[in-house]
Amino acid sequence: MRYLLGLAAAMLLTVTLFAQQHVYYEFSSPNGVHHEAEISVAAEGLPQGAAIFRMSRSSPGRYATHEFGKNIYNIKATDKNGATLSIKKLEGDVYEVTGHKGYVKVSYTLYGNYADGTYVGIDETGCHLNIPATFMWVKGLDNAPITIHFNLQNKNWKIATQLKPGNDAATFTAPGLQYFMDSPVKIGDLSFTEWTVTNPDKKSYRFRIAFDGKDPNNKLDEFGKKVARMVKQAQAVFGETPAYDYGEYTFLASINPYVFGDGMEHRNSTMITTGNDFTGEDNQLGVFSHEFFHCWNVERIRPKTIEPFNFEKSNTCDALWLAEGFTQYYGVLLLVRAGFTSPEKYLNTVGGLVNTKTNTLGAQLYSPIENSQRAVFVDAGVAVDKTNYQNMFTSYYTYGAALALALDLELRAKYKLTLDDFMRALWKKYGKTEIAYTVPGLEETLAQVTNDKKYAVDFFTKYIYGHDAIDYAPLLANAGIELNRSFAGKAWLGNIALDTNKNNQLFIASNTIKNTPVYNAGLDIDDIIISIDGKNVTQKKEWDDVLAQHKINDVVEVVYKHRNETKKTSITLKESPFVKAAVKANATESENAFRNAWLGEK
Ligand SMILES: [Zn+2]
Questions:
Q1: Stated pTM of the model
Q2: CA 220 to CA 240: how far, in whole Å?
Q3: Count of domains for the chain
Q4: Do residues 12 and 122 both lie within one domain?
Q5: Quick one: pLDDT at residue 15?
Q6: pLDDT at res. 380
Q7: 8 A C-beta contact, residue 225 and residue 183
Q8: 214 C-beta neighbours (distance < 10 Å), count
Q9: CA of 271 to the centre of ligand 1 (A)
């Protein structure tokens, strides 16, 4: 989410026209022990007629809908003197207040017991607030300035947020609704570690980790130094950090067993929730590097299809393969460059990305644009019915990262450029200027960076608008890396999940996947396996043991039950197409240099 600088000018105009338009929020959690908060939103300068107050249905950085209105109750409306006003529910989460004289205060109780990047967690130890999940807002007052005050239940509590500090330590302001909604708030007995980052233009920014968790070994400062090393590698990709509003960037980091694993990017902060105890080890850095990369890629280099963000419905984006996928690629790569992940270990990621593009149906059959647009269903979208994602969807995170890998390697081999050059060009053209981009704009930038329009058209036609296969072997060979079959020479019938049910029957627990032997044999999710090769099986291991005795091209007979009907089929075994990456034994000096330039410190 972003705050348009142009909005400041528009706001001044608004202020002139409706000098009194302002929205005030009050927050307290006197019944925190039962996860309740008391909230009020007061709007002044309302135009005549009905005023519409509502809860959001979506949240910046999340693309599916989340019905935040489900967790509020005790809804009341009053005027400036505290007299009751008429409030009517128009929809599940939309309320209409009538009979007012320009001022309405709506108050409600909020229940929140799920601390992560999307929802709310309230208890006696503190409050973890994602704004769209917490606060109602007033339709038509998007540009009205906002003041929010927190009543702290405990004198040790501190507040961390990217909101602008106000008149006292518990008051903050926002220039308008979009900015407010993008600014999560963490309240509790927080610990801090901080450092300074200076850009080539000599401007410095304060970085801090606002930490919620136990740190028995006093590792937080040391961990902050590790995060700072990662930040430096990210800064090197773009040449500079963004000019953070109010001079600082905050990692709101909850690392404790009482939160749910997530990471959510924001303009000058990120909400990180890791459901483990804090150790300060390198393996807790991954979510930091991914989310931090977003302060360029998606927060400022922003897809036009989600700008401005709509809080009333899902937001369909055609470029999550770049916004999330390229961020995924760099999130891992930055830790290699900063020395936290060894290049050898990174090859597992490389192999995984090759498999994503080569061996998943969503990437074989559909473009990354089509997969991005599915985020409105898959991005923590909740459904009761079964889906067929295994056969038609590949995550835009890994799909996009697989494209980033191919593009990075190709730019290096063909043009003596790197993906960093492309990202820096996007930053200059769309990020620094905060002009939202389109997919054709990305293609044009690739043409400019490579000075080769034909290449850019070809790449986008084949791999972004299309879903052509990518031959990774020659690209990786330049870096002295070879691809080999992960299970060479072993009989394989497809990747399926097998489980034993409470009646001690072995059953297929996931969709079987198109073009694999088990799919072609007609086996489907929920089918119960009775025997393979004449041997009765009830456990996965028994099934695996039978398979292990077979060779590629063998035919095995399977007896199974589908809806109480016993059936028989035969499966012709193949070799798994999945590959792994390894450094070539005979890699040349120039191949090693290519790999070091790619994975080495910047
Ligand atoms: Zn992300």
A1: 0.95
A2: 25
A3: 4
A4: yes
A5: 46
A6: 79
A7: no
A8: 12
A9: 11
